[in-house]
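step: validate -> pass
step: tokenize input -> pass
step: predict -> running
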Amino acid sequence: MNQITLRTRRGIGAVLRGERRDWRRHLLFAGPAIIASVAYMDPGNYATNIQAGAGYGYQLLWVVLLANLIAMLFQALSARLGIVTGKNLAEISRDNLPRWLVWIMWAVSEVAAMATDLAEFLGGAIGLALLFDLPLIVGMAITAVVTYAILIFERHGFRPMELIIGALVLLIGLCYLAEVLIAPIDWKSAGIGLLQPALPDSLALTIAVGIIGATVMPHAIYLHSGLTKDRADIGTDDDRRKLLKFSNVEVVLALAVAGLVNMAMVMMAASAFHQGYADVAEIETAYYMLTPLLGAAAAAIFLTSLIASGISSSVVGTMAGQMIMQGFLHIHVPIWLRRLVTMVPAFVVVAMGVNATQALVMSQVVLSIALPVPMIALLVFSGRRDIMGGFAIGPVLRCLAALGAGTVLLLNFVLLADVFGVPIPFLAG
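step: predict -> pass
step: emit ->
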């Protein structure tokens, strides 16, 4: 454990003991939610948000807002679980559920981890390939090397990784702030799209489910519970209450930034492509068209944010995958092996010649279908007094969480009905 991590732990301890009261104390608790927020700005979001904005203008912004609110709630509950119990969600599932169910949950979670890596690797690779005119497979290899190099810092404790990921998140945020300033946004239409729910047709439904899958991420729910549990020595329930207070503030701020970035993606695509180029659905096409439509700066900024997103989310995805395997199976594998296992499907997809952006969108649909597993588990465990004690969530939070999980389940059910040709009355098209 290096000096930066040790200083952070000591600083958190000083805050919990009441020895530090300056405004900078909040920075000591910043980290877990920032790392988790990367999952909400990964390349899968780029694919679904471009399709949403280009095809439907500002009409699906409400889906981004809904997904972000659900994400805030479940990431806060995940952090709460880790702080109170000292275990991550996968470990608690292993300790409290039948073995057959644990194996099913692990299998579903591994499929979700592989779908996540598919999106992350393809996104980073697409950005590098376009920027340096490289074959896609070479871009993926570079992404693999860079992410592994960053993952090595994890052996030095939690703080260096938090700072690296935080810097990449800041870069993504600044890129999309610039994009919003460059693009001529129709703010009135954006406001209507944000507050007035609409699903014009079945394709909009597929994209909406993809947005949910790209925003509320299964691996982020598992990961957050593990990131919060070892950052401080917790001696009393009063310490836990203080940690929960700081954690909730961090979750709201970090996820709000992620939500604004996603909204900016949709608005940029709506502004640039919806009028006259509504069929733009691929990241490569979006990049090439941004130069004549919004200028070379907008296109370069878009690629920069995509590369930062691919690298940071690939790192976070590997961390989550390792935690999922350790938690469910009590097996710890070397980080290089974990990195290799989860990225193989991405290389296979590219080698088969599958359209990269379409693979990104479908990976997000897979994630959305896998999402109810950790959501329901977290909802159940958060309300159990034998696990959470006096920190078990009350009726209001339980109802809100159940409503969020129910929304995701309903969207998934409607999507499956549409796939199998079952008529959906409330869709216009």
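step: describe -> The chain is about 80% helix and 0% strand.
step: cleanup -> pass
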